[in-house]
Amino acid sequence: MIAIIALGLASRSIDAQPAFVRQHAGDALWAAMIYWGFAFLFPRVAVRWIAIAAGSFCLAIELSQLSSHPFLVDARSTRIGALILGHGFLWIDLLRYAAGIGLAAMLDFSVRARIKPEPATAV
Q1: Which residues contact 37 (CB under 8 A, 6 or more apart)?
Q2: Whole-angstrom Cα distance, residue 93 to residue 99?
Q3: pTM for the predicted model, two decimal places
Q4: Looking at the chain, which runs of residues are DSSP E strands?
Q5: pLDDT, one tens digit for every residue, the chain (123 residues)
Q6: Number of domains comprising the chain
Q7: How far apart are CA 82 and CA 76, in angstroms?
Q8: Would 18 be classed as within a structural domain?
Q9: How far apart are CA 48 and CA 109, in angstroms?
Q10: Distance between CA atoms of 28 and 105, rounded to whole angstroms?
Q11: Domain limits for position 104
Q12: How far is CA 29 from the centre of its chain?
């Protein structure tokens, strides 16, 4: 998760990268980090449920950007609050989140398939 945070911050601050990466990678990486956070907290839960939980969380955060509640406005005025809660609702962010969660889920699924214990056989 630390590596994802570093990549996400770098995606917004390094100028020597394609505009597509600069525009979209940060949100996708943020959503992937949320996925891995849920996967860490609930390691025995199926990949699809972790993806649904991460997607629901990301959707809730994005929808919260439609609110101008003083608590949220104050939280977004801090650096960490802005990184977690964002600023303005954008439909494209939902696609970015889906891409990040989808890639994280595919990686998780492939890793789980490789380390799945084999059934015990009677001797």
Answers
A1: 1, 54
A2: 10
A3: 0.78
A4: none
A5: 788 777 777 776 677 776 666 677 888 999 999 999 999 999 999 999 999 999 999 999 999 988 888 888 888 888 888 777 877 888 999 999 999 999 999 999 999 988 876 666 666
A6: 1
A7: 4
A8: yes
A9: 9
A10: 12
A11: 2-115
A12: 6
